[in-house]
Write a structure and sequence with these properties.
The chain is α/β, with parallel strands linked by helices and 417 residues long. Helices cover 42% and strands 19% of the residues.
Length: 417
């Protein structure tokens, strides 16, 4: 009888200890939900982004003791298939899994849906709020008329990048005709509108000989589009295409021999550099943040080397992911807890020096990161870190200070009481 009671006590204590351990383990992680395409035509972009987030969390936070004196960051992927509808399904799943922070970047159409959903969820569920860190969806509306307290953008928006690109075109007298081509959704439309507006002001003598949108992720062969571009007599092309749409556009341009400068937002994804090869040398321009060639700091050089050693045939293509992870970790430590309201307030106005040595500020007025950006050129000269094992990479051609690209906002931020 006594033995039976003792055994029962041991079992009860074991169960209690098990529950306590489980609770401790749960408290030892902060879950980050990566909601981006992991299947379909843009799977390569999403899978690469997930690796870059996971590596940054492990290498720059977890290996250094985590946040809050020992709490680890745990990144989990949720496949949104570049669909706003599917992204909302995955958001609900992530919330159910205990995710505190979601990160997303591919497709401003998805971003617009997510920012609305997060705001509604947080209003209705004040005890289960989540934070939305946007690392690459650059529709200007997201930090203007659609801004909200829970959304933070770590990439320069489409207008900021267009300021830099059009300044470059302005300085080139040989470019008197430009063709604009992009994906038919909010981001593609924002790029086209900014190009028309800014070129009209900076180069009224320049003619826009084409302004065309195509279905996103549907075009396999861009030959008909490139044929029209070539026939137009364009001396340069502006495109916001990304992922498979950038790869296929570049391939068609190579095949047809369209030998004009391409001003791009996303000619840095895996597979694009190899596709461009020698045909893209000196004529493919990219506007982005960070600095790989040359690497501006030993810390970034070491980080990139370690990433490429772990993920064979992969490259750091989205420097902003590193900034997102490091600034989130700093905000959590500054907040001193995992309360989303406190983390958001800690992010507002944060000044931060990136791993590449750039000074950036998360503007409190609209949650848009103010940062210097750079224009790079596709080449095989002076390449420290090539891409796709091709011998080609993106080398810095011009640095653009914050003052040249920072734009005013129409955001009227509503903060929780």
């Amino acid at each position: 009888m006594q033995t039976s009671r003792f055994a029962g006590l041991v079992v009860a204590l074991a169960m209690t200890a098990g529950i306590a351990v489980g609770q401790a383990q749960a408290a030892d992680t902060i879950k980050i939900g990566f909601i981006d395409p992991l299947s379909g035509p843009f799977a390569a972009v999403g899978q690469s982004g997930l690796k870059q987030f996971t590596f940054a969390a492990d290498e720059l936070v977890n290996k250094k003791g985590g946040v809050l004196g020992g709490t680890m960051l745990e990144v989990t992927g949720y496949d949104n298939q570049v669909s706003a509808k599917e992204a909302l399904i995955q958001l609900k799943k992530a919330i159910g899994d205990g995710v505190k922070v979601i990160v997303q970047g591919n497709s401003s159409g998805v971003a617009n849906a997510l920012t609305d959903a997060v705001e509604k969820h947080n209003t209705r569920n004040p005890d289960q709020r989540i934070l939305y860190l946007n690392y690459s969806a650059v529709d200007p509306a997201l930090t203007n008329e659609k801004c909200n307290f829970w959304h933070f953008r770590f990439d320069a928006n489409a207008d900021m990048k267009m300021e830099a690109l059009t300044d470059d075109i302005k300085a080139r007298a040989d470019i008197d005709k430009v063709y604009v081509i992009g994906q038919d959704y909010s981001f593609g439309k924002a790029v086209a509108a900014a190009a028309v507006d800014m070129l009209g002001k900076k180069r009224p003598d320049l003619e826009i000989v084409g302004n065309e949108l195509h279905p996103i992720g549907k075009v396999k062969d861009f030959t008909p589009y490139v044929t029209k571009i070539k026939a137009s007599g364009a001396k340069a092309v502006i495109t916001g295409n990304w992922g498979a749409d950038m790869v296929n556009l570049a391939k068609a341009a190579n095949d047809i021999g369209l030998d004009v400068p391409f001003y791009t937002y996303y000619a840095a994804g895996n597979g694009i550099t190899a596709t461009l090869g020698a045909a893209g040398k000196g004529r493919i321009m990219l506007v982005t943040e960070g600095a790989a060639n040359p690497a501006h700091t030993d810390a970034f050089r070491a980080y990139t080397t370690a990433y490429e050693a772990k993920y064979e045939n992969e490259n750091i293509t989205q420097f902003r992911i590193i900034n997102t992870v490091q600034m989130l970790a700093r905000a959590i430590d500054k907040a001193g807890n995992t309360n989303v309201d406190d983390i958001a307030r800690a992010l507002e106005g944060m000044e931060f020096t990136t791993i590449a040595g750039d000074r950036v500020i998360m503007r409190a007025s609209d949650h848009q990161l103010a940062m210097p950006i750079r224009i790079f050129v596709h080449t095989d000269e002076n390449v420290e870190f090539d891409m796709d094992n091709s011998g080609f990479g993106l080398v810095e051609e011009r640095a653009v200070p914050v003052s040249a690209v920072e734009l005013p906002t129409t955001c009227k931020m509503k903060r929780p009481s």
